[in-house]
Amino acid sequence: MSSSITYQLQNILSGNAVEDTEIIARLRILLEEHNQENRLPVAVKPIADLIAQGIADIQDRSLQNTLIKSGFPSLDEFIGGFLLGELVILGARPGMGKTQWLINIALNIAKEHPVLYCSLELSSFLVSARLIATQTGISIDKILQQKLTEQEQQKMEALANQSQELKLFVDDNSYENINALKEGCGKEITDKGIKVLIVDYLQLLGNYKHKYNRDAETAYIIKELKAIAQTHRVCVLLSSQLSRAVETRGGDKKPQLSDLRDSGSIEQDSDKVFFLYRPDYYMITVDSEGNSTEGMVELIIGKNRNGPLGIIHQHVNANITKFSDLATVSFDFSPTRLNELL
Question: What is the pLDDT, as a whole number, of residue 15?
Answer without folding.
Answer: 65
